[in-house]
Design a protein that fits this description.
2 domains; 95 residues; mainly alpha; 4 helices; Arc Repressor Mutant, subunit A
Length: 95
């Protein structure tokens, strides 16, 4: 949604919510809100497309997620080595 709109973002979100939750026709809701019905339809379609596309991934979050996955893999390898070492030393102690 364009930030250059003469309608505040919260108004647009509320209008979209009203369209999605109401049984009334979009034209009627647009008339009641004082908005052109094609403008309201555009807002609803844009919101629907954004919802279908899913959340926009933040590059910093993606980088952090990659770093954390790498760290988890390293820790899992260390855990496996320690588990094997513990089993080896347990066998040695039984001799």
């Amino acid at each position: 949604m364009s930030s250059r709109s003469k309608y505040p973002e919260q108004f647009r979100r509320d209008a979209i919510e009203l369209v999605n939750s109401s049984d009334r026709p979009l034209r009627q809701i647009a008339r009641e809100l004082g908005v052109n019905h094609e403008t309201l339809r555009s807002w609803v379609n844009t919101a629907k497309q954004a919802a279908e596309a899913g959340p926009v991934e933040d590059p910093a979050e993606a980088q952090e997620l990659q770093r954390l996955r790498k760290r988890v893999a390293e820790l899992e390898k260390e855990q496996e080595i320690l588990r094997k070492a513990a089993a080896y030393f347990a066998r040695e102690m039984d001799r």
